[in-house]
Amino acid sequence: MEGNAGKRIKCKAAVAYGPGQPMSVEDIYVDPPKAGEIRVKIVGSGICRSDLHILDTNIANDFTFPLIMGHEGSGVVESVGTGVTAFSPGDHIIPLWIPNCQKCDLCMNRKTNFCQTGTQETMNVMPDGTTRFWTLDGKPIYKSIGCAAFSEYTVMPIESVIAIDKSVDLEKVCLIGCCVVTGYGNVVNVAKVDRDSQVAVFGLGAIGLAAIMAAKECGARRIIGVDINEDKFPIAAKFGATECVNPQKLPDGVATVEQLFQSSYGGLDYTFECVGNVRAIKSAFESLNRWGVCVVVGLPPRGTDVPINPWLLLTGQKLTGSFYGGYKPREGIKYLMDKYMSGQLDLDLFVTNKLKLQDINRGFDLMRKGETIRTVIVFDK
């Protein structure tokens, strides 16, 4: 694609035309970047459960179709728009699905990791309200969560991109952009798990496993993985789980997971719900001891409520949650990139499948069946 700076590019993308439908891998047009934007050639993009939720749940109502999903990406800057000096063609980057302009009131406030440049409206379009993606017959295509990493090329505002070292493997570090920063950060940054504590992680997908990895690093003495898919128990042990529990196969006389944890463990210090299931959130919260902290990490369907006993709040248990592991996006990505480059963060265990873009629907099916930890879509370089 050399010599295409300032020109519209024709490339392949996986386009979702509506919930419940398979994606269509087809040729599209990608406009050149405007002022304050960059165009990126994507190299790797993980399939996140949040992408699956857009296809399979009512979260789809938050988006305009046709849609290009993918927010756990990595790539190389192809061209830059007018006035862009912080990035140059050839730079390696990770997209930020929460912008981080580092200038607005929210970015300057240590109590939040949101940014005023990121709104509900700009989840589908660029900050100026327009799109950079088009069908070959001239109809607009929109993007999800600001990134559109299931396209060979995407356009991002500079507030939503961080430059990374050019020596790293882009097919691996894409995972830092979502599952790793989310799972890891909620343990060390939000809950602040301490040594010798008892922890349970509900949901053993990539985010849950990143949480287990972080809990082990924090020195938790007991780390319990909770999932109905027992095929995930061996991989959870590799990440640091000391034991695993299937909620559908409890000991005789034990009706619920929270009852098991209360009676056998005296209540847990920290729990993490990494699925987006309201029943699991309730279980995770009610499994705590009097000073315990439950962190909601998964993405529940819109309009769902969690029925909890408010007396537990009065007696000291805490219920909280966050996006991006509570990190300011640039800070979180930089911290974990440094850990990866120093050999302290092993990403290989997360990647169970690598697929080409044309096989993306198979990747989603693997996630639905629970047969993958993380599938990475890899693009031709």
TrEMBL record:
Presence of keyword Magnesium: no
InterPro entries xrefs: ADH-like_C, ADH-like_N, ADH_Zn_CS, GroES-like_sf, NAD(P)-bd_dom_sf
Alcohol dehydrogenase-like C-terminal domain ranges (all copies): 206-330
PROSITE patterns referenced in this protein's UniProt entry, alphabetically: ADH_ZINC
Protein's UniProt keywords contain Zinc: yes
Domain Alcohol dehydrogenase-like N-terminal: start-end pairs: 35-164
Domain of life: Eukaryota
Keyword tags: Metal-binding, NAD, Oxidoreductase, Zinc
Coiled-coil region list: none
One annotated GO biological process: formaldehyde catabolic process
GO-annotated cellular components: cytosol
Cofactor(s) this protein requires: Zn(2+)
Pfam family, one: ADH_zinc_N
GO molecular function, one term: zinc ion binding
Assigned protein family: Belongs to the zinc-containing alcohol dehydrogenase family.
Name of protein: Alcohol dehydrogenase
Source species of the chain: Medioppia subpectinata
Source species taxonomy: Eukaryota, Metazoa, Ecdysozoa, Arthropoda, Chelicerata
